[in-house]
Design a protein that fits this description.
By secondary structure, the chain is mainly beta. It has one domain: Lipocalin (Beta Barrel), CATH 2.40.128. It has 1 helix and 8 strands, in the order αββββββββ. An 8-stranded antiparallel β-barrel has the order 1-2-3-4-5-6-7-8. A hairpin with a 2-residue loop joins β1 and β2. It is globular and about 40 Å long. The chain starts with a helix and ends with a strand. 10% of the residues are buried.
Length: 123
């Protein structure tokens, strides 16, 4: 019987937890994203205003348009794609936020294979 009380109490506590999502705080700013590619950690820096994002990666820059679906979701599309793969739009969804970071999920529009990453605000 005691197990039932502990189990019920733990369910109640966990159902009250809501992840912080102050997505509007991340519509504008300069951010970094690190990704493991093979055995290397590669860093992309991007500067975003409400409708444009400029990515800086390995000494090159690339500009994308942004269309916000709501405060936590947006579509990114390269302005000058160099190949067919770059023509595809990417759906971004901010899952949680902290004071300096946000956890996001992304996928190519129309593709259900989703990946996750964390972006950090640069000061």
């Amino acid at each position: 019987m005691r197990f039932l009380y502990v189990f019920t109490f733990s369910i109640l506590l966990s159902s009250c937890y809501n992840a912080e999502r102050n997505c509007a705080d991340y519509k504008v700013g300069t951010f970094e994203f690190e990704a493991m590619v093979g055995s290397e950690v590669l860093t992309t820096t991007f500067v975003r205003n409400d409708s444009i994002e400029i990515d800086f990666f390995q000494g090159k820059s690339d500009t994308s348009s942004i269309r916000w679906i709501n405060d936590c979701e947006y579509i990114v599309k390269k302005k000058n794609p160099k190949n067919r793969a770059e023509e595809k739009a990417i759906h971004m969804k901010i899952l949680t936020t902290t004071a300096n970071t946000y956890l996001f999920e992304y996928n190519i529009v129309g593709n259900s294979n989703k990946k996750r990453g964390t972006a950090t605000r640069r000061r």
